[in-house]
Design a protein that fits this description.
The protein is α+β, with helices and mostly antiparallel strands. Among the domains are: 55-226 and 274-282, Rossmann fold (3-Layer(aba) Sandwich); 313-415, no CATH class; 422-494, Serine Threonine Protein Phosphatase 5, Tetratricopeptide repeat. It contains 31 helices and 20 strands. The strands form four sheets. The protein has a six-stranded mixed sheet with strand order 2-1-3-7-10-11, with helices on both faces. Strands 6-5-4-9-8 form a five-stranded antiparallel sheet. One of its GO terms (biological process) is proteolysis.
Length: 806
């Protein structure tokens, strides 16, 4: 089967809703794509029912104070009630109130980092929710659906949220107390790739979910939920009361009683509803959950799938009654041994201590030798046996963390200083589920410094998967492609989710390192790697596979699935998806041309400081795309921001402004060549072809004909066929002296000093011989054009460009 046909089949399977639930169809399609390729290192994707999650994690959101629609009286109180209940039951709880859209994106990024396959998640939301077509959305407090293209940037897709959580967690329970009156009564919005804008309606429609998910809604599909007369809604009040009264009961049993209580409390006007794909029971009581797992055959708790950071070290106290600790910043840091050593030095028995004041960022948790770990709240005793962990959040590395212990002789202040590992600081990746939240973009990586830092980290901690992945990023930036791939493979084998997407990209770009940029359908093994990444909840994999389906899927179903995967990436603020969708909808003459929709995606990307968003808005103003009035100075402003940050095409775009006279009052060919010369080393083949043509035909001062031939030669061996053809056309109009001068210039650039004069004599032959011997390359042919082409290929073999920037 050809690759395009594979994507057609995958898309057809993904969207074949009539054959079964959409989530099951997606999982089946991904599995087929993965298994066809027989890729190495494939993780075990089954749930081991003899084990149990070692971490219980709650996300609780109450949205009440809406800026553009009616407020809700109970939502914050409902969230507080649920958060308190979960904390009392041993959950680590992220509690948020009145979240806006960017706040939701940040929260989802935090969840990506925190949650793994040893985690059981309860997600609770109280606030507005609506259905638009066959899709459900929960509503941030700053949402406004004034235009048809607002939904992706104003609301949060429930389907995307469930799938992101489901891909990361072992088990998830989604509880939604929403569906009051429709806050967007007259709004219509696009929520699918094609079709028309659909009206927002009250309530939620039926919702599919991945395996091991419980969905609990405050009311039945399409119906309205009521606020009730008390401080809490009928649904949330009944849920917490029922769970508190019988915490050892399975949640499914509790929800059945809640349904009766809600029906009774609302005089039959509201019936709560739930749906389950659970393959193991869920209990609010931690001890009961663990007992059931042991009875089913488990023996002990399950360790987290992340390496705990090296233990903290105790330092000399700053003052009596204080303890100072230091450690590398990580998601989890073992501080127990160092803390107890400090307490011993202070002559304080650890068994007498309780937590008096928790840290402002992050949390403390005990990790007993058996059973799930538990967060420590105020008044909790320090663990007697097992580990004491500091669980970081995104702010924990910004400043020393302080907490206070209560002791018989008075309070003891503890200060913990966390320092990011140099490898994280130099090469940590954005939106990386296996990272620690410290990140740089590809254009910000210093190849030499990052390679040194991450090689040291790997040597120090060879079992930490993210260090191998980040070493791969550093080696990719250094253009050491074989070693980069080896590092990504090691990270994959250690369980790093992002490594699958990175390896897929390396497979897809094998020829790009010395062949120039070309937008092609990825080979099947690359698609399979992306699919594994999707299964593991990686936003970069959502984008990579989504883009392939959107661009190359042969059926409308395949393209729709590509669009929905891009939407999933967008929910966590992934700007690559915004830029890709902007370009897609801006394709004039296509059946999907929609300039207003396109420009909204570009604007949202630039608002998040993405260099590709900058460049894309520059293109809009330079070329008058989407009906925008051309504006050279405004285009220059966007292009300069993109070029400064390393965008590969932005220098060439600035050159075009100078060449066309859109800035500066008229054409400036010398300035255009200077900007094109910044673009060609970044892999922009048209920068080389255009610079060659300008030198040959416009003859700006300071350039010789062989300068045109040099740029044309570099371009003609690149992968971009049209740019290469244009470069060959330039060469065909140049004489032998220009070709010989270009050969001399290439030899000189590759480190064999040579006077460039267009006379390729004995000195030039000797320099070329030294060059080929040093590089282990064959002697180029004697024919001028063949010799020049061979030298150009040799040039790029010594100067591969940053394929990670495309």
């Amino acid at each position: 089967m050809g690759r395009a046909s594979i994507l057609a089949a995958v898309g057809a399977c993904l969207l074949c809703v009539a054959a079964g639930p959409a989530s099951a169809q997606e999982e089946l399609a991904l599995e087929r794509l993965i298994l066809r390729s027989e890729i190495p290192g494939l993780p075990d994707r089954r749930i081991d029912l003899g084990e149990r999650a070692s971490r219980r994690y709650g996300v609780v959101i109450g949205n009440a104070d809406y800026a553009h629609v009616n407020d809700l009286k109970n939502a914050v109180a409902d969230a507080a009630l649920v958060a308190g209940f979960l904390r009392d039951r041993g959950y680590e709880v992220l509690e948020r109130t009145n979240l806006d859209k960017l706040g939701f994106e940040a929260l989802l990024r935090r969840i990506l980092r925190d949650v793994d396959k040893d985690t059981e998640v309860v997600f609770y939301f109280a606030g507005h929710g609506v259905q638009i077509g066959a899709h459900n959305f929960i509503i941030p407090v700053d949402a406004r659906l004034d235009g048809a293209y607002d939904a992706p940037f104003e609301a949060v897709s429930l389907d995307s949220l469930i799938r992101i959580l489901g891909a990361r967690a072992r088990l998830q329970m989604i509880i939604l107390d929403s569906c009051r009156d429709n806050p967007f009564e007259n709004a219509e919005a696009f929520v699918e790739l094609r079709g028309e804008a659909l009206p927002a309606r009250s309530g939620f429609t039926t919702q599919t979910a991945p395996v091991n998910t419980m969905l609990a809604f405050s009311t039945s599909p399409g119906a309205v939920a009521f606020d009730g007369e008390g401080a809490n809604s009928p649904f949330t009040g009944a849920l917490v009361a029922g769970a508190a009264a019988n915490p050892e009961a399975p949640v499914a049993e509790i929800l059945a009683k809640v349904r009766k209580d809600v029906y009774r409390a609302t005089d039959g006007r509201q019936v709560s509803w739930d749906s389950s794909t659970l393959v193991e029971p869920i209990y609010f009581d931690a001890a009961r959950a663990y007992e059931v797992a042991v009875a089913d055959g488990a023996a002990g708790s399950v360790s987290r799938g992340v390496a705990v950071a090296p233990v903290a070290q105790a330092e000399p106290p700053a003052a009596p009654g204080s303890i100072r600790l230091s450690a590398r910043y990580d998601r989890e840091v073992e501080i127990g041994a160092a803390l107890f050593a400090g307490l011993k030095a202070e002559d304080v028995p650890a068994s007498s201590l309780t937590l008096a004041e928790p840290p402002a960022s992050g949390a403390l948790a005990s990790a007993p030798r058996q059973g799930p770990r538990r967060p420590l709240g105020v008044g909790a005793p320090l663990p007697d046996g097992g580990s004491l962990l500091f669980v970081s959040d995104a702010d924990a590395a910004a400043a020393p963390q302080r907490f206070e212990l209560a002791a018989p002789g008075g309070a003891i202040a503890v200060e913990l200083t966390l320092t990011p590992d140099p490898c994280d600081a130099q090469a940590g990746d954005h939106l990386d589920p296996g990272g620690v939240g410290v990140a740089v973009y590809a254009n910000e990586i210093d190849p030499q410094a990052a390679t040194a830092a991450c090689a040291a980290a790997v040597a120090r901690s060879p079992g930490t998967a993210r260090f191998h992945y980040q070493l791969g990023r550093a080696r990719l930036a250094a253009r050491d492609f074989p070693e980069a791939r080896a590092s990504f493979e090691k990270a994959r084998d250690l369980g790093h989710a992002r490594a699958w997407q990175a390896l897929g990209d390396m497979i897809a770009r094998e020829e790009a390192a010395t062949g120039g940029r070309a937008d092609l359908l990825a080979p099947e093994p690359a698609l399979a790697h992306y699919a594994v990444g999707v299964e593991q909840g990686d936003p970069y994999a959502f984008y990579a596979l989504g883009r392939q389906l959107l661009r190359y899927g042969e059926t409308s179903g395949a393209r729709e699935q590509g669009y929905q995967l891009m939407m999933r990436a967008l929910e966590v603020g992934h700007t690559f998806a915004m830029n890709e969708l902007g370009a897609f909808f801006l394709e004039q003459g296509s059946d999907h041309y929609d300039p207003d929709r396109a420009l909204r995606y570009y604007a949202e990307s630039a608002a998040r400081d993405d260099i590709y968003g900058f460049n894309n808005l520059g293109l809009v103003y330079a070329n008058g795309l989407g009906g925008v009035t051309p504006n050279g100075p405004q285009a220059l402003e966007w292009f300069e921001k993109a070029a400064e940050a390393g965008h590969p095409y932005a220098p060439g775009n600035i050159a075009r402004l100078h060449n066309a006279g859109q800035i500066g009052g008229g054409p400036n060919y010398a300035q255009a060549v200077r900007w094109y010369d910044r673009g060609l080393p970044r892999g922009d083949a048209w920068a080389g072809a255009n610079a060659a043509w300008i030198i040959a035909n416009r003859r700006p001062g300071g350039y010789q004909p062989w300068d045109a031939a040099t740029r044309a030669a570099k371009t003609m061996v690149l992968r971009d066929a049209e740019a290469a053809a244009a470069a060959r056309d330039v060469l065909s109009g140049l004489d032998g002296r220009a070709l010989d001068g270009a050969a001399q210039a290439l030899i000189d650039e590759m480190g064999e000093p040579l006077t460039v004069d267009g006379a390729f004599g004995p000195a030039s032959e000797a320099a070329m011989a030294r060059l080929t011997e040093r590089l282990g390359a064959p002697t180029p042919p004697g024919d001028r054009k063949a010799r020049l082409e061979a030298l150009a290929r040799l040039y790029w073999s010594t100067r591969p460009f940053r394929v990670d920037l495309f």
